[in-house]
Amino acid sequence: MSNVEFKIIAYLGRTPNFETEIKLRDKGDGKVFIEEWNAKDKVKPTDSQLNALETDATKLLNNAKVDKKRRKEYLSWKEQLEMIYKDQKNGTTTYKDHCDKVRSDNPKG
Known about the structure:
This protein is mainly α. Helix content is 56%, strand content 10%. The chain folds into two domains: 1-66, no CATH class; 74-109, no CATH class.
């Protein structure tokens, strides 16, 4: 995702459908712009409105990176279920400890 996408997410307060609801374009110069705005809940923002959301967009981008890293480190759902089963059977906290470690190793901003 581009930073413009995260600015739009911050502006709307939700993630829109970037294929049908809001279409972005890059003319090859690396500058992404809004080509089509079909969101019904808010009017198309101006460039200055989007630029004012730079800090929020950066935070969303960084949190998305953390989420991606966490998803990898949480292991597969099969491995998680196995940990939960063994914890319940043995009275241990392996699964909780694992989740706590993933979160502490990858904090959100």
